[in-house]
Structures are given as structure tokens and as C-alpha cells.
Write a sequence for this structure.
């Protein structure tokens, strides 16, 4: 069966510090991968998606970047965090050609102080 | 420009009664429609979906209705249970797009015992 792992679960970082959130998927190959953010009181905003290794599409220009160094690994990064980067970050995957919906990870609560 | 709108940020319902959550979308090209349920500090989980060729899909206590002419989607939960208390997101997607899903802003459902 397929599983998705996302870590850490919570993170408190000072303004100006770097960020690295990691997501891995097991039990499938060549998935579509996604990073979403849920800001306080708001819906799910798509940040990045990837259809293959090294292929990253950005939905929202911002302080963040994403990378996919391996087929089932998706990393969200920042060189210098801003207060506005605080939120709940979710990784998701979808099997290409499979059912329509995503499967989400358990999320990372990022607080920038 | 919000393509998907959930105009009610919150809804309170008595246990045993029906919960009706609504969602409106703007793009008639969307092919499929989903509802996700999210508990605090967890990733969203898939609940139920419907494709554009149908107007109703039922799964146990959950029924999704699609009105294509009105570009309106609704989720009915009956009977509502306290464990249904969560944030509900509607999501829409278009075939052939790796970007896949656009989410609404969510509705917090509270089922009162």
C-alpha cells in the first residue's frame, strides 16, 4: 500500500532562518507531488507541484522554493523565512492516471517568530 | 480571483439532523468534484467525489450533489454525528491537468450533541 511521510510535524523558526521540509512517498512510482499551505483562517493554497524528478512548477511567487531530487521525494525550502511564511504545510501525492483525488501527508505546523 | 468559493466559513448543526455544506465554482470546464474532511493538525482526508457526468453520488451518510448549470456543489451529511465536526473543503479539478485540484476556503462544521 502507498504511504506518505511528512516531517517535522511542528517547527518554530526565527525570522531570517532557512527552512527545509521533506516529504516522501512509498509504494508507488512516478507520482505527481504537491505542496500546499493553509494559512490561519484560509483555505488550501497550492504552492508547487511536480510531475517528475527535477520538474517543479510554481503556482505562487514567493519566498519559498521546491525541489524533487528523487522520484518519491519532495522538498520545500526557504533561504530566509518571513513572518508571513507561518502556516500549515501539506504535502500530497497523486498517481498519474489514477483516481482523481490526492492523498495528503499529516502536515507541518510552521511558526515563524 | 477565486475559482472555488465556500461562502459559509462555519456551520453548526444538532446531532441527528442534516448538515448541508455548499460550494460554488466559476469554471464550467471542471470535470470532477471532491470533498475533503480535515481535523486540526492533520492532513485532509478524501471523503466523496462526483464526476461531471453525474448529479448525485451517495456513500453511506454522505451524499454529494452537483448542479452543473448553477455551478454549485453540495455535501449532505445525514444523520450528523459529533465526530463529523471538522473543516470540510470542496475541491475541483480538470482532466489532463497535473495541477489537478483547486480548493475552496473550507467550512467548519460543528455538530452539537
Amino acid at each position: 500500500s502507498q504511504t506518505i511521510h511528512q516531517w517535522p510535524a511542528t517547527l518554530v523558526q526565527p525570522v531570517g532562518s532557512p527552512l527545509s521540509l521533506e516529504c516522501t512517498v512509498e509504494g508507488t512510482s512516478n507520482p505527481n507531488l504537491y505542496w500546499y499551505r493553509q494559512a490561519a483562517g484560509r483555505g488550501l493554497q497550492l504552492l508547487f507541484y511536480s510531475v517528475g524528478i527535477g520538474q517543479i512548477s510554481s503556482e505562487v511567487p514567493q519566498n519559498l522554493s521546491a525541489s524533487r531530487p528523487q522520484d518519491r521525494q519532495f522538498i520545500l525550502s526557504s533561504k530566509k523565512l518571513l513572518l508571513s511564511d507561518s502556516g500549515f504545510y501539506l504535502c500530497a501525492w497523486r498517481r498519474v492516471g489514477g483516481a482523481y483525488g490526492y492523498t495528503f501527508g499529516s502536515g507541518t505546523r510552521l511558526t515563524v517568530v | 480571483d477565486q475559482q472555488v468559493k465556500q461562502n459559509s466559513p462555519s456551520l453548526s448543526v444538532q446531532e441527528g439532523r442534516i448538515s448541508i455544506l455548499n460550494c460554488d465554482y466559476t469554471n464550467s470546464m471542471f470535470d470532477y468534484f471532491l470533498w475533503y474532511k480535515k481535523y486540526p493538525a492533520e492532513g485532509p482526508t478524501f471523503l466523496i467525489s462526483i464526476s461531471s457526468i453525474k448529479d448525485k453520488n451517495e456513500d453511506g451518510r454522505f451524499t454529494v450533489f452537483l448542479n452543473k448549470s448553477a455551478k454549485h456543489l453540495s455535501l449532505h451529511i445525514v444523520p450528523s454525528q459529533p465526530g463529523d465536526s471538522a473543516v470540510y473543503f470542496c475541491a475541483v479539478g480538470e482532466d489532463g491537468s497535473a495541477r489537478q485540484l483547486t480548493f475552496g476556503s473550507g467550512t467548519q462544521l460543528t455538530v452539537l450533541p
